[in-house]
Fold this protein.
Amino acid sequence: MTDLVTQLRDILPANAVLTDAADRAAFETDWRKLYSHQALCVVLPETTEQISEIIKLCAASGAKIVPQGGNTGLVAGGVPAAGGNQVILSLARMRKIRDFDPVGDTITVEAGVTLQAVQEAAEARGKKFPVSLGAEGTAQIGGVISTNAGGVQVLSYGSMRAQVLGLEVVLPDGRIWHGLRALRKDNTGFDLKQIFIGGEGLLGIITAACLKLSPAVTEHATALAGTASVEGALKLFQALRDTAGAALTLCEYMSGPAMALGAAHVRAGQPPFAAPAYVLAELSGHGASDHVAATLEAVLASALKDGTATDAVIAQSDRERRDLLVLREAVPEGKLKEGGAIKHDIAVPLGAIPETVAAVEALLAAKYPDCRLNVFGHIGDGNLHVNIRPPAGRTLADLADRKAEITTDVEALAVARAGSFSAEHGIGQMRLAGMQAHKSTVELDLMRALKRAIDPQNLLNPGKMLPEA
Amino acid sequence: MTDLVTQLRDILPANAVLTDAADRAAFETDWRKLYSHQALCVVLPETTEQISEIIKLCAASGAKIVPQGGNTGLVAGGVPAAGGNQVILSLARMRKIRDFDPVGDTITVEAGVTLQAVQEAAEARGKKFPVSLGAEGTAQIGGVISTNAGGVQVLSYGSMRAQVLGLEVVLPDGRIWHGLRALRKDNTGFDLKQIFIGGEGLLGIITAACLKLSPAVTEHATALAGTASVEGALKLFQALRDTAGAALTLCEYMSGPAMALGAAHVRAGQPPFAAPAYVLAELSGHGASDHVAATLEAVLASALKDGTATDAVIAQSDRERRDLLVLREAVPEGKLKEGGAIKHDIAVPLGAIPETVAAVEALLAAKYPDCRLNVFGHIGDGNLHVNIRPPAGRTLADLADRKAEITTDVEALAVARAGSFSAEHGIGQMRLAGMQAHKSTVELDLMRALKRAIDPQNLLNPGKMLPEA
C-alpha cells in the first residue's frame, strides 16, 4: 500500500495525506467512541477533481474508501469498518460557499461546510436554513445530506432531504455527476439526487449541494406545558398542529424522568414546574404581527381548560425563550452526565406513541427489572429517543452483556407497530443487525441491486448500511 | 399472443381483459390525442396479487407492460409506444381507500383512486390534501405519484413527492414490495420509494400509497394584481414569499396576452382591470383570525405604493374569491379554444425568469416571426408554460413541420440558464428527444443503470423516459 500512499501524495497538496497513527486517530474513531478501526491513511482533498483522482487510484489498487464529514454521526457510518484496506476521505477541506441566490432563495455550498456555517450564511443574508441539530457546529453538510439528518424542526420544514435541490457527486468510477441544480421543479427522468441523500456514502461522494432557504423568522412564540402523560402530550401536539399548521416549527416531548436528569446535572435545566410529562413548543411567523403568540395562547388556554395541559409557561422575552429551549438541550446532557444509556432512535405512527411507550415499560418490567427508562423526542414526527439506563447503583458497563438483546427487543416493539428502528440516525455499522432482523428479503434485494448497479466493486463505505447477503 | 390473453383471462375477473379494438381505443390514445399505438389487450386487475400474476405471465410470454392511471398525462407516458407486444395494465379498478389516520394525519389509498377523491376524502375528515391540478377529477393517484405531478400549490406544500410517506409496489419480477409506511422519519437504508416516485412506471407498478395530509385551511386571502412586466410579477412574488412564508399557497403568473385569450373565449375569464402582466396570489391560514388577510393587504399596499403593482383587487367574499381563481383556469382553456399552441413546460432559477421570457421573445422575432407567445405559470416555482401560437390567420397544423425545431430551441433556452426542459409534465414519449439532447452521458448512464438493476428485461413501460443507448 506504500505505492497507493505515494500516488495519493503525488496528486494532493502537502499535508493532505495523513499516515501517522497519531494523525489518523481522530478520524478512525466514531463520535461516541464505540468503533475504531485502522485506516491505510486519511486524505484531505480540496477539490472535486482531486476526489475523482483519489477514487480512481484507490479503485486501481483495490483499496476501499470511507467518506467522512464532521464525524458526528451516531451509528459509526463515517469511520472504517473491520476488514482493513480502507482510505478515509475527509471532506473537511471542501469548505467554500459557492453561491447565494437571494431571488431563488438558494445557497450552494461544498460538502465540508458545517451545518452551523450554512445557518449563519443564510442568516447574514436575511434568510433561514431550517435544519438544526445538536452537533451542528461540527457536522458537515455532506454528512448531513448523506445521513438525511433530522433534528428539531422536521415537523414544519422536513428533514435534510426536503432542503436539497441539487447535488454534485463523484461516482465510484471517478466520474463527476454535475447535478447542482437550483430548480424547484424538474421532472426529467429519475430524480437521481434522491439515491445519494440518505445513501450513507455507499453510492457516491457528495462534494457540493444546492440548498433551499426559507424566509427569515421574525416572531417566535415559545411555551413549555406539562401534561399528565404521554397521551396528553400527543393530544396537545395535535391541537397545536391543527391550529397552527406549518407555523408549528418545534414540538418536543420530554418525560418527567428525562427532565429530572437534565435538572439534576445542568444548572439551566430546572423546569419552572413539575409534571409527569412535558411539551416544549414553538410557533414561528414571518410577518410583523403577534399572530403566532395569539395562536399559541389560545391553544394553551383551551388545553388548560379541558385538562389536556396541567400547567404552562409562555416565554415573554427572548431571554425567557432561551431559558425554555435550554431545558430541551439539558435532557440528553443530563442523561450523559448521569452515566449514559443504551440508546434507541425509533419512530412509530403518531397514534401508536402511547402504546409504544407502554410496551417499552412493560418490556422492562418483565425482562429487565430495575432498568430505568428515559424517553424524549420529536413527538410531531413520531420519533422517540428511547434510552434504557442501568438499575440504580449500577453502571452502563454492567449492562454490556445484555445490550444487544435489549436493543433487539426495543427495535422489535417499534417494528411491530409499523415503525422504524432507526428514525433519524441511520444504519452505519451500529444498526446492521437491525437491517438483517427487520427488513424483508425484497427490500434488502432492492437495496443491494442499487448498490451493485452504481458501485459494482463495492468501493465506497464497505461494511455500512447493507448486511452481507 | 392468444395464449397470453387466455392465461390472463384465467386469473382475472370477468370483463377484466379487453381485446376488442373499440374497447381498447380509449386506453391506447393519450390525453392530447397525439400518440396512439395498438396494445395486445387491456387488463383491469382489482388486487395487488392479480397485478403480480399479470407481470409474471407477461414476462414469461415476452410481452411488455404499460401501466396506466387516469391517462391524463401530457407526454404520452401511459399509453403504448411503437413496437407492439404491449399489454396496458389499467389501475382504474384499484380504488379502495384502505385507511385514514386522524392522529398521524395520513390516508392510505389504492393507485386507482382519483386525486379529487383523495382531496374529498381528506376534506370529509377535516383535513386537506394539497396537490391540485386541472385533471384532478380523472387523474389517478398512482399516476400522479409516478409522474411526481405538481400543480398550483407546490410552492407551499411541495410536489407529489413531498406528500408520499410509503408505497406498495409490484416489481418487474412479480414480487411485491410492502413499503406502505406511515412514518415521518425512517432512515433505514436507501429510501426506496424515491425511485418509484416520478419513475414513470419504468421500475415498478405502484399499487397503493400512504399520503400525508395537511391541516384544513380555514381562511383564505386571495388577490389579483397587475404589474408592468414579468419583472414586476417576480418582485411581487418575492415580497409575498418573504412576508407570508409557507402561508403563500398560490402564486400564479399570467401574461397579458394569455389573460386576453381567456377573456376572449371564457365567459368568466374577464379580468377586473387591464395590465401587461398579472399575478394571482392566495394566502391560507389554519386559525380563526384574519391574519392572512391583513398580511396580503399590507404587501399589496406596499407594492402599489412603490410601483411594483399597478393595480390590485382583493376578494371580499367566497364568491369573489372563486371569480378570481376562475381567471387562472380560463387561461389554458382560452388558449385551447383559440386553436391551441406548441406547449412547453420549462423551469429556471427564479431570478432567470425575466431573461428567459425575453430570450423566447427574441427567438420568435429572429427565427419564427409572427408566431405569438402565450406564457403563464407557477412563478414561485420558476415554472413557465411557454406556448407558441401560430401567426394570425394560420392554424397549429400550419406549424407542424417546424414544431420539433421550435421545441428544441425553447428547451435549449431553459437548459442554457441551468433550467429544466420538463418541469412538471415528465418525459414519457414526447420529451425523449429532450433527454437525448440535454442530459449528460453520466446522467443517462446512471438512469440506465438503475433501470437495468431493477428491470433487467425491460418489461415495464418500454419506449418511455430513457432514450435508447
User: Anything to note?
Assistant: The two ends of chain B are 28 Å apart (CA to CA).
